[in-house]
Write a structure and sequence with these properties.
Blueprint lengths: L2 E11 L2 E12 L3 E5 L6 H9 L5 E9 L2 E2 L5 H6 L2 E4 L6 E5 H11 L9 H14 L10 E2 L5 H15 L3 E5 L7 H14 L5 E5 L3 H4 L6 E6 L2 E6 L2 H18 L8
Parallel strand pairs: 3-10, 3-11, 6-9, 9-10
Antiparallel strand pairs: 1-2, 1-4, 4-5, 7-8, 11-12
Helix pairs in contact: 3-5, 5-6
Length: 256
């Protein structure tokens, strides 16, 4: 089992403190969901975990299997088994999907253990079929001209191909119709197991109808303020963030 621990994490962006002491522990074989209103720091948390240099950690630790990874660059964290599915994936003209994914796989392997072309193509075909992706997607430039749904599906394809220890998924349901949501959820659910853990960031219960989390966290005021099981997401759906904030004595208007 692997463990990703966030301890008393404080993060600021352009002198404004966004995260104000986040504590979170995720093990492999667990799916965690973080829900919360806009502006409360959910995406900041995902960026900080992956080491985005625009997000300054001023206090706290991020530990992967007990080792502090704060000093590591983004690519070093990825090689250790962290993966970020972004809300707005970047377009990279001139690099095909297949080229990008194979390079990413080999970047995490030793020089004498690179994936063979045949093994790569077989795995790519299998994962694309699972996600109902057209074969020509492999030869299109990375995310260039992709619809929002295609970009999200492509992020899940990368997840399936790279097989990280932990995936942080930042609003992968944003802009998806119900059919695309089901396909994306199918890909995430296919990763469930002893060697994989995930942190899903979402605003809505809808996604969690298809990817059932083991643990749900509510984030407000730059902190995790409430943790529970899947029933917590259903409670949020009925009560809204206002109801939870009122119960906890948090000024919701400051976070809206």
């Amino acid at each position: 089992m692997s463990t990703l621990e966030i301890k008393d994490l404080h993060v600021r962006v352009e002198e404004k403190e966004i995260l104000k002491g986040v504590n979170l522990t995720i093990n492999t074989n667990e799916i965690h969901a973080i829900m919360g209103p806009n502006g409360t720091g959910k995406s900041t948390l995902s960026a900080a975990i992956m080491g985005n240099p625009n997000f300054e950690v001023t206090q706290g630790e991020i530990l992967l299997d007990g080792e502090d990874i704060l000093a590591l660059e983004v690519d070093e964290r990825a090689r250790l088994g962290l993966f970020l599915a972004m809300q707005y994936p970047s377009e990279i003209p001139g690099i095909t999907n297949a080229e990008f994914i194979r390079a990413a796989i080999n970047a995490g392997r030793e020089a004498d253990d690179k994936i063979s072309v045949m093994a790569f193509l077989k795995k790519l075909d299998d994962k694309m079929a699972l996600l109902n992706m057209d074969e020509d997607m492999a030869e299109r430039y990375l995310n260039e001209g992709f619809s929002g749904g295609e970009k999200k599906r492509n992020e899940i394809l990368q997840l399936l191909m790279l097989e990280p220890k932990f995936a942080i998924m930042d609003e992968i349901d944003s802009g998806l119709d119900i059919d695309a949501l089901k396909v994306v959820s199918k890909g995430v659910n296919a990763m469930r197991g002893d060697n994989f853990g995930a942190l899903i960031i979402t605003h809505y219960q809808r996604l969690l109808n298809y990817i059932t989390p083991d643990i749900v966290h509510v984030m407000m005021a730059g902190r995790v303020v409430l943790t529970g099981g899947p029933e917590l997401a259903a409670r949020l759906e009925s009560e809204g963030y206002h109801g939870i904030a009122k119960e906890l004595g948090i000024d919701y208007q400051e976070e809206a």
